[in-house]
Structure formats: C-alpha cells, structure tokens
C-alpha cells in the first residue's frame, strides 16, 4: 500500500488544547464516535457501556507515564530532551528538540555531552533510518527525571499540566514516555457501568515511546518502528483466548494493546510473552487477536492509521475520519475518542 493512503485533511483548529478537567468537565465528557458496519454514531465517552454487550472483553494498557521531557543544556545552549524508550540502565532512545513546539533544531554528535537536572548525559548514535531519534546515556536517569522532568507536551497545548493529567485509571507500571491516551477518558463511573453491563477487563503492559511517527516512505511496508517494551501475562492471554473461543468480542483500548497482543500471537492464540516489539500492523499484516478498538484520533500519515486500516478496513476508517472532521471532533491526547466495531469474522470462533 502507498503511504499516501494515510493522508486526509484535518484543520489545525481541531487539536485539543487542554484536558477536559481544565475546562471544568469530567474526563468521560469527551465525545465518542462509534463506527460500525451500520454507519457512524455520535455520543459521549460516559455512555461507552451503551455500545458494548455482556461478555465483551476490554483489554487495557496498565503502563504509567513518566516525566520524560527533560530540560537540557548542551554546547548549543538549552534544548528539550524527550525520552522515548529505555533499553538498559541509563540507556534510552530520545528525541532532542529545540522546544515543545519546535521539533529538530538540535544537531547532536556522537559522544557529545549535555546536562539534565545537574546530572550528565551524552549522545551515542542516531537510530538507524530514524535520524530524529538518538540513543543517549544518562548518568542518573531517576535523578534527571526527578529534578528536570515533566510530561512530554507539544506546541498545540495552551498550558502545562501536572503528571497526573497524563495518567489513566489503569496506570500502575511506570514506563511510558507518552500517555497510553486511549484509556484516558475512563473513569470510575464508566467502569461501574461496564461491570453492570457484564463487560470484562484484562490488562497488558506496553511502554509507549514518543508519538506515532509519520510514515515518510513511499510504500507503507517500508516504514521503520523502534522497539517498545511489552508484557502479556498468562492471565491476559487466558482471558483473550477464552473470549475468542466463546465467540465474544475482544476490544483493545488503544493501538498499544493491539501491538502487544499481536506480538504475543502465535497464529492460533495469544501466548504469555514479554520483551521488545517492533510489530508494524498494516493491511498487509492484518490483526488477528482483537476485533474491536477504542482509540483517539490520529494525525494524517501517522503509522497508527495503518493499524486501524488493518483492523477495520480503509473504507470504514476514512469514512469515520471524514465524519470526525465534519463534526469537529478533537485530536491528540486530550481529545475525543473513537470506538471501532467492524463486522465479526466468520472464522472468529476457533
């Protein structure tokens, strides 16, 4: 597939500029676009249970967000170092930026040193074929985040918000550079309604890196992803397999969940697994482990759109995004939500 298939028009004004709480609303007050074979329906996230049924299994990401944006000083002056993925003690993949609103603008060299929060660091090497990301070493990563860290933010936000605004109700395993934001609108009220509806819950872990990179290759299949740490434990694998065997829907809360489950998929079932994954899901590598998805709205040419195509088909996704633009839904981590429920496969029951 050509990467141009991921392009669409989205006005810049449709970026969510603040969390719902900062506007005096509950998290679950964001809008919910529901896409099914019957069309696209509009609601609020607080009403999520109305669109699910008894026996549905929601799989959520329990990763918690780190204060991963570091104020740094180097040879060229001040810059922002957004940590992305941890690969060992002090060893990170990171994105150096001139500021939250200015990508790039920093030209590191291998072994070039910098300071963050009074502790030293150095650039090691760029990530192959992703030159905006660099391997770095921090002498004291915890101290650097404690003294200098804040949540990663970008220029479309109107203010700065505490780390708690970037945590979901499921977050109990710190490790994500950016919030697994599909789960952000969940509240205790929503969870109570889901339990009353008979919806079940399972948890996996995938520590997210910096935002979904735009696909810059001509062919979608040539896009490069960096490794992200994940774990699908025995309880999650058993819950997914039991739901599948009974013909019940398995609905991922976030593209991170789909990526983790597909990385644990052995061709017939989900197996307990942990490690690092670079799994890139697109129409040429379809989704097998889930048949529904709750997600935010993704930017043009974002690699996550290719995953949506793989799950629900290009026609449904593009139709949903036209609807979202027309109805002025909001994008990004504090934006609105999208529930995709494509038709069940005849081969779903094993």
From TrEMBL:
Keywords, ordered alphabetically: Cytoplasm, Glycosyltransferase, Isomerase, Queuosine biosynthesis, S-adenosyl-L-methionine, Transferase
Molecular functions per Gene Ontology: S-adenosylmethionine:tRNA ribosyltransferase-isomerase activity
Keyword Protein biosynthesis belongs to the record: no
Entry EC number(s): 2.4.99.17
BP GO annotations: tRNA queuosine(34) biosynthetic process
EC primary class: transferase
PANTHER family in UniProt: S-ADENOSYLMETHIONINE:TRNA RIBOSYLTRANSFERASE-ISOMERASE
Protein name: S-adenosylmethionine:tRNA ribosyltransferase-isomerase
Lineage, opening ranks: Bacteria, Thermotogati, Deinococcota, Deinococci, Deinococcales
